[in-house]
Design goal:
By secondary structure, this protein is mainly β. The protein has helices at 38-47, 163-168, and strands spanning 22-27, 51-58, 67-74, 78-79, 82-83, 90-91, 98-104, 107-112, 118-123, 128-131, 136-141, 148-155, 160-161, 172-177, 180-185. The chain has a single domain (22-185), classed as Jelly Rolls (Sandwich). It has 2 helices and 15 strands. Strands 1-2-3-12-7-10 form a 6-stranded antiparallel β-sheet, with no helix packed on it. Strand 4 and strand 5 form a beta hairpin. The radius of gyration is 16 Å and the shape is globular. The chain starts with 21 loop residues before the first strand and ends in a 10-residue tail after the last strand. The structure holds fructose -6-phosphate and zinc ion (ZN). Fructose -6-phosphate binds next to strand 11 and strand 12.
């Protein structure tokens, strides 16, 4: 970890940072219970267990004042009619926001609060999204053939709470309907988060 100001490049065609500390790869097997169509999930898992997304992290000390940042890449594809997506999380320190800057692709950020409010915002190149403190967030790639690539930055001490979303899911899902992405209710959503 660097103790002096530093720079890195994002100008490779696939936006992989020229320097990073951690490369996370999440396959379908890490997403059990998150996709609505369980039969499609099992079939795909047994056939290929595809790589759904990758994250390149520039890791900073876990403390207020620092900023964690990096690149998130969601690969295209679907599980049943539901598009590839990240696990999604609340920040462990709930009152911490995050900025996403979309570099490539077409997608959505699905968000919700512990109180059950929800929001869905489109992501396309050049678009900046401010995720407010308290809002869980999940990115979804709706392109048939292109990666969804975003630069993210959030407080050093935010941490991640994955368990709440693993248990309750997101209130809204992004599915393909008549060839177009549509926002639909998640019939399995159960509010367990305690504000
Ligand atoms: C960090 C953040 C992103 C995500 C990344 C992968 O707070 O929101 O860097 O971590 O898009 O998604 P998750 O972490 O939900 O697997
Ligand atoms: Zn986050």
């Amino acid at each position: 970890m660097k103790a002096v100001p530093f720079t890195f490049n994002l100008n490779s065609p696939d936006f992989v940072p020229s320097e990073f500390d951690n490369h996370i790869q999440r396959r379908l097997s890490a997403m059990k219970g998150q996709f609505l169509d369980e039969a499609a999930y099992e079939a795909l898992l047994n056939a290929a267990n595809p790589l759904l997304y990758e994250v390149y992290e520039l890791q900073r000390p876990v403390q207020p004042g620092e900023l964690q940042h990096g690149i998130s890449i969601v690969h295209p594809g679907k599980v049943g009619s539901e598009y590839h997506m990240t696990k999604g999380h609340f920040h462990e320190v709930l009152e911490t926001g995050e900025v996403y800057y979309c570099l490539k692709g077409q997608g959505y950020m699905v968000m919700e609060t512990p109180e059950g409010e929800w929001a869905v915002e489109a992501l396309s190149p050049g678009r900046v999204l401010y995720v407010l403190p308290r809002w869980a967030h999940r990115s979804v790639n709706v392109s048939p053939d292109e990666d969804l690539i975003t630069f993210f930055i959030y407080p050093g001490n935010a941490g991640h709470d994955y368990g709440t979303i693993e248990q309750q899911g997101f209130r809204k899902l992004i599915v393909e309907q008549e060839g177009q992405p549509a926002v639909v209710d998640n019939p399995r959503w159960e509010r367990t988060a305690v504000p």
